[in-house]
Amino acid sequence: MSISEKVLEELRELKKSPGAARKDKFYYFHKALDGLDVAVKFKDIDRYGIVVDYISLARTEPILDVEAINRRLEQQAETVQKTITYLLEDFMLIEMDKASKRAQLRSYPPYEKENSKFFYEIVLEEGTRVHFQRYEYNKEHRRYEKITSQLTLEIFKRLVDDLANLVK
Amino acid sequence: MPLMNMENDYNRFRQIIKGKIKENLRKYISNGEMIGRKGKELVSIPLPQIDIPRFRFGDNGQGGAGQGDGEPGEPLSQGDGEEGEGQAGNEPGAHVREVELTMDELAEILGEELELPNIEPRGKKEIVSHKDRYTGIRRVGPESLRHHKRTFKEALKRQIISGQFNVEKPRIVPIRDDYRYRSWKTTTKPESNAVIIYMMDVSGSMWEEQKEIVRLETFWIDTWLHYQYKGLKTRYIVHDARAYEVDRETFFTLKENGGTVISTAYELALKIIEKDYPVDEWNIYAFHFSDGDNWSRDDNKYCLELLRDHLLPRVNMFGYGQVESTYGSGEFYDYLEEHLGDDDRLILSQIPDKEAIYDSIKDFLGKGK
């Protein structure tokens, strides 16, 4: 069973348990699976798709060598750009901060609709952590807001597997 | 008298030029074309809609007054034109007219159009500059400064008075007493010292478009402050997650892909001020441009501390201009507005696109600081 299938199973279970949704109407899943620390915030899940806010995956075992971390960050950034191509918006490396061992990728170009810009963001940290989130920037309010992504289960599984492979 | 008329015409023409530039200033400000035409003291400005004055001649051989069969008082006609077949030209069109303005004239136009008040230098110690000008004539001096025309004039006067001058055989020989020399006067002029420290975020999210906005805005700020302070000094800092001092060219061309840690630039600016610009002697201006996407909130807090406790007390004004990246505009602007919005030494300005530069310049320079 792949990690994404395990995650899906866990999320469905969580949704079934009474009172699991918090006040903000989101479900928060956080568990160690296959040696990875997995966190998913989602709004809903059914037979076909999921409304997900963020996906976070982290390897618990750290990398100590700074050079190795930065090499790995570069490889991870390249892998994201090559493999995560199924979200209708391709990723581009925006910032690579070797001092704080962090890389930021965003989908390019951002999708623009009326007064807003929408984009996905993947942040890689320390070579061992990855965080996926979608944002909306509203030109009128001049503010970034974290928003949900509506993904089919097939795409969600593929994404979780790809993100897990990055940090394993 | 004709010379006076020519001067009047020339002045009138300069007024027309200035008027045209003023009318289109917003366009010029958001258009980088002018910056490439800047020389040391002059800037050339393309003015497609201006006619350079020139002599106009009438058509020849049209039977003008006194040459034709008409009666006195009969109106002249242009005659019948001949119809012909024309062809589209294949040569390049006429060049756009260009006029040259001094940087001071440009600054004056900017000041008038944007209604910018003159800057009142802070109560700083004034620096006095000395300048020598050759304005007088003396009887003694070094040979290199001998005024030949005046010397011969004196010799001529002496020869005429003493009857030595022969009109038939004019020959002027100056003697020692006739020698005249240029002399100079030293004038002293009080000047206020001023420095601008420009800081720019060159992190991965600041693309060419954003840097172009910064380039245009700094050109106009520079033009105005140079007009207000002669001998203005400029320093340039770029930063991503680290800050460096660079020269002007690097400032506008450098591309990095690091993260954004704004405090690094503020720390370096403070270091430069503390080392080179004592606050009681200098008028200090600092401008920072970024897309406001600072990587951590902790750094926002640290920036606030640096600004409030160290930078703002030392500067005449601190301008923060937030440009909009492809993805939008970060929260740094709002953070500063929330915490330091009441401090009139800090001026905040949003510059979402080139069109907004005009208003942003007004934001920064409109308070006469």
Description:
The complex is a heterodimer of chains A (168) and B (369). Chain A is an alpha+beta fold and 168 residues long. Chain A has one domain. Helix content of chain A is 28%, strand content 43%. Chain A is built from 3 helices and 10 strands. In chain A, strand 6 and strand 7 form a beta hairpin. Chain A is globular, with a radius of gyration of 16 Å. With 369 residues, chain B is an alpha/beta fold. In chain B, 34% of the residues lie in helices and 20% in strands. Chain B has 10 helices and 10 strands. In chain B, the strands form 3 sheets. A 6-stranded mixed sheet of chain B has the order 7-6-5-8-9-10, sandwiched between helices. A two-stranded antiparallel ribbon of chain B has the order 1-2. A two-stranded antiparallel sheet of chain B has the order 3-4. At the A-B interface, strand 4 and strand 5 of A face loops of B.
- Ends apart, CA distance between termini of chain B: 45 Å
Major sheet details of chain B: 6 strands, mixed
Characterize the overall form of chain B. Answer: flat
CATH fold-level topology of the largest domain in chain B: Rossmann fold
Order of helices and strands of chain B: HHEEHEHEEHEEHHEHEHEH
Specify Rg of chain B, calculated over alpha carbons: 31 Å
Largest contact between chains: A-B, 22 and 22 residues
Number of domains of chain A: 1
Query: What quaternary form is this?
Result: heterodimer
Roughly what fraction of the amino acids of chain B lie in strands?
A: 15-25%
So what's the CATH class of the largest domain in chain B?
Answer: Alpha Beta
